[in-house]
Amino acid sequence: MNHISITTLEAPELDIYARLSEGQLFHYNEPKEGLFIAESPKVIGRALDAGYEPVSFLMEERHIETEGREILERPECAGVPVFTAPFDVLTRLTGFKLTRGMLCAVKRKKMPGIEEICAGARRIAILENVENPTNVGAIFRSAAALFMDAVLLTPGCSDPLYRRASRVSMGTVFQVPWTYIPKGDWTENSMETLKKLGFCTAAMALSDRSVSIADPALSQEEKLAIILGTEGDGLAASTIAACDYTVKIPMSHGVDSLNVAAASAVAFWQLGMGNRK
């Protein structure tokens, strides 16, 4: 193990944990793919299981023999620098209490194309401009648990590899295949790609032509893309118009909508029915 005790908070090798924003980490190795920070042994382990390459670790020294031991003993972690410091030093360094034991700086992978992500998929989720990383993480967790084969995101969405998103997802961002939709008007470009791949599209929105999420026609579709919109305004009118279905979740007590993360769980459970064994 390449164990390095931290003696100064100003060490340049600690910049990636303490002084660089997630946006700066994204561009860290340009023109090659950048870095992201994974937090907690479970999230880090799932990233490694998915073939991501660790750059360094930051943790309390006591966690080398506790929460972090199984991670550090993995072959792919041999020789990777392990920076350690007392709890109060790490709190000052990172700006928050490192309650989950460890952080890991990880190399990003090249983004795959839509065709690659959707190959063999029958149920996919599409997120349009979902900006809150907590919501993105929660949606990925529901997608993994509730029968989604892949997730596509428009460029306006929060990055699933941002630390908060991956932590909220419990590492499922490394288990569900995903990619970004190319920039531009995706309803004119990528929507056509989905149709060529055989997908019917279902916009989660309230409109005069909305059908119930329990409509049998939806579960009978061989391939279905479930599209969820931004937290405030929902889906763009052009997106709704371009979809085969507009779908609503029946509600009571005068409530007309759910938080996008909650709505995703309901939608994936019901519309992922065709994926259940």
Give an overview of the whole structure:
One of its GO terms (molecular function) is RNA methyltransferase activity. Residues 124-268 form the tRNA/rRNA methyltransferase SpoU type domain. The chain is α/β, with parallel strands linked by helices and 277 residues long. The chain is built from 12 helices and 12 strands. The chain has helices spanning 15-18, 22-26, 41-49, 69-72, 87-94, 114-118, 133-145, 163-168, 190-196, 216-219, 237-242, 260-271; strands at 2-5, 35-39, 54-59, 81-84, 102-107, 123-127, 150-153, 178-180, 200-204, 211-212, 224-228, 245-248. Strands 8-7-6-11-9-12-10 form a 7-stranded parallel β-sheet. Strand 6 (123-127), helix 7 and strand 7 (150-153) form a beta-alpha-beta unit. The termini are far apart.
Layout of helices and strands:
Blueprint: E1 2-5, H1 15-18, H2 22-26, E2 35-39, H3 41-49, E3 54-59, H4 69-72, E4 81-84, H5 87-94, E5 102-107, H6 114-118, E6 123-127, H7 133-145, E7 150-153, H8 163-168, E8 178-180, H9 190-196, E9 200-204, E10 211-212, H10 216-219, E11 224-228, H11 237-242, E12 245-248, H12 260-271
Parallel strand pairs: 1-4, 3-4, 6-7, 6-11, 7-8, 9-11, 9-12, 10-12
Antiparallel strand pairs: 2-5, 3-5
Helix pairs in contact: 7-12
